[in-house]
Amino acid sequence: MEKKYYLGLDQGTTGTTALLFDRKWNQVSKGYCKVVQKYPKPGWVEHDGLQLYETLLQATEEALRKIGASADEIRCMGIDNQGETVIAWNRVTGIPVYSAIVWQDRRTAREVEQLKAKYGNLFLERTGLELDSYFGATKIKWILEQVPEAKELLKQGNLLVGTLDTWFIWKMTGGKQFVTDVVTASRTCLMNLEKLSWDSELLALMGIPKAILPEIRENAGSFGTTQKEAFLGAEIPITGSIVDQQAALLGQGCTEKGTIKTTYGTGCFTLMNTGEDRIQNQVGILSTLAYIHLGQQSYALDGGIYISGAAVEWLQNGIKVIESPKEADALALSMDNNGGVYFVPAFSGLAAPYWDSYARGMMIGITGGTTNAHLARATLEATAYQVKDVLDVLRGVSDLDITSMRVDGGGSNSRFMMQFQADLLGMPIEVPKISETTGLGVAYLAALGCGEIESFEAMRSNWQCNHIYEPKMSVDERETLIWKWHRSVERAKNWETETL
Question: Angle 330-335-341 (CA atoms, 0-180°, nearest 5)?
């Protein structure tokens, strides 16, 4: 059977997307499956690991069914993952010992503060990351200490622990491959960024045996082959693996130094390619790997925001003031201003550039004249303000000339938020023709890994712009809005100090 398609699997926090591309890089089909999130306690966020894997199968099956294709027609596949989410399972049975602990989870925040006071500089020096409960290290430590089955399996030598890429590849290959990619490994806060291997001293500090962690590989290359009984009856080479945000960087063609993209999803993530130069972590922005291929490393500066689309979802399902994200956009567009209402959506703390685990959500400036439209506008504005905060830091710590930003993700469909973002940044916002840049990026990576793309140049040359938002706001109005936003953030910070 002719091998016609490249498969990009984008496994995100709220859903899994499967994209099929033909050999000319036209997107020919898409499948989607919703992911169930669990919130067992305040600040805790979990997924069912087996359900997550099923979403990969269901999304891929849907994409194939839409065009009447079979899995045997897939040339190769790439998988991107949530990055910091971790899971542990029984090597013999393949059953998780506990739910996957999601990147948003804050259960280890108190312990992180204690560890950071003693070892924060060491973790920063070795991994390039601020020690935070956002990353995988303390999540793994919690599983080893709090889950009885994990303790027993560890004694038996039958416990495996990894990020979601490791779990998916292990399942797809029928347990033949226990591997991770180098970028995802770096997001555990346990990988030495210079040596590109697990750091023995950090593992010892956390009480995590190296034997339970996967082998680290480059982002493009062989990660094994799917087994017929495990993945839709087909043997498909897995030749690309990376974190979702770095996948979006590739899908946006941001492979040159100084190019920048922002993905508006459940959270919101801004990455700027810094090429071979690793700019040291400064003032709340992370220094991270972008990708590694054939020994060549590219780095990025990373500003992550915990809550973006999740705040719109809260408007819809939490307080029920809208029926859909489109309604939030329409309400925001109906208003000439925000009516003095500001929303700090710190549902699980604030990420870059504040890194405050104890901040909590706050709506301020409410009066008797406040309406649902004001709430919707304040919610969309909140994401744009946070991206502005991140970009200001990126401009401050790099010598790179940032002249425009490429955007993707569900939030990029909001006409109000994209125009407001351009206004706050004072520079153009570029929306691509293929909006599913994360799945596209990992499909590119898979094609690179199986030798069907020669270099990153093809990713750059394939990128096409669909729409540009130009800034229109005056400097005075912009500065006033930002000043009031920062006043709001100060009131939300360090709120939940007594209960974590």
Answer: 110
